[in-house]
Amino acid sequence: MEEGTVKIEGSHRYAERRRRGEPALACFNAIPDTQTAEVLASAGFDIVAFDAQHGAVTLHDLPDFVRAVELHGAAAFVRVPWTAPEDIMRAADAGVAGLIVPMIETAEQARTAAFAARYPPLGNRSFGPVRPHLRSTDAANERIHVYPMIETASALAAVDEIAAVEGVDGLFVGPVDLGLSLGLKSDEAMHHPDVVAGLDAAIAAARKHDKLVGTVSVSTEHAEALIAKGVDWISLGDDRKYVRLSAAAALAPFSG
């Protein structure tokens, strides 16, 4: 796996992995508690992605959450609630290294998201960082990554145009929503041939335009298969999953 032309700034593990051409491993953080975020980062995940779309984390929480994971060398990403430029700018002000933008369906929507994430002349982000060490606009423009989500049939049809947008650093494939959009049931989407073909199309578009690809996995074997396909970073799960599995394992010896 090669680094490609996407510039990777920062001293976090995600940047180090990418500079070595290695895949990065991520975990979504949905529980609104900085201790949870810190535990995930200290466990060794390269990326902790705060879920402000489906989780209970809010944009108001982000500065403290970002600090918590940076203490342990992880990169802070966030999935913003929607495509609204004001949400993207607020998340960028908090100092995240990556923005995952849901429900992008056209190149124009991707361009709007990328534009909101960067200061002029590369975008229209308003100056107002809430972290005192993030006042250099040039450094801010270089350090942030923008990942439109490919999770609808419309986005899949426009995947090449979306990947080509200047300021888009990669694509993040949402297999379940993509499957639902293609007429599948949620429990069959992850491995369905139509969704697999969609992921392959996203990888091909990303490689064509020297961009990165991220997605989610459901098992170690699935993650390994995705890495073999050329996916650059993979979420292995979320905090709620790990709490549930650990609690179930502790209770198992005592169950009937």
Write a structural description:
This protein has 256 residues and is α/β, with parallel strands linked by helices. It has 13 helices and eight strands. It has helices at 13-19, 34-43, 62-70, 85-93, 107-117, 137-143, 153-157, 159-163, 175-181, 186-189, 193-208, 220-229, 239-251; strands at residues 24-29, 47-51, 75-79, 98-101, 145-150, 170-173, 212-216, 233-238. Strands 1-2-3-4-5-6-7-8 form an eight-stranded parallel barrel, surrounded by eight helices. Helix 3 (62-70) links the parallel strand 2 (47-51) and strand 3 (75-79). Helix 2 (34-43) runs parallel beside helix 3 (62-70), helix 4 runs parallel beside helix 5 and helix 9 packs across helix 11 (193-208). The longest helix has 16 residues, at 193-208. The radius of gyration is 17 Å and the shape is globular. The termini are far apart.
Structural class: alpha/beta
Roughly what fraction of the amino acids lie in strands?
15-25%
Per DSSP E runs of 2 or more residues, the count of β-strands stands at 8
Q: Mean pLDDT across all residues, rounded?
A: 94
Helix content: 40-55%
Radius of gyration: 17 Å
Q: How many helices? A: 13
- The ordered H/E elements are HEHEHEHEHHEHHEHHHEHEH
What tags apply to this protein structure?
256 residues; alpha/beta
Characterize this entry briefly.
This protein is α/β, with parallel strands linked by helices.
Indicate the topology.
Elements: H1 13-19, E1 24-29, H2 34-43, E2 47-51, H3 62-70, E3 75-79, H4 85-93, E4 98-101, H5 107-117, H6 137-143, E5 145-150, H7 153-157, H8 159-163, E6 170-173, H9 175-181, H10 186-189, H11 193-208, E7 212-216, H12 220-229, E8 233-238, H13 239-251
Parallel strand pairs: 1-2, 1-8, 2-3, 3-4, 4-5, 5-6, 6-7, 7-8
Helix pairs in contact: 2-3, 4-5, 9-11
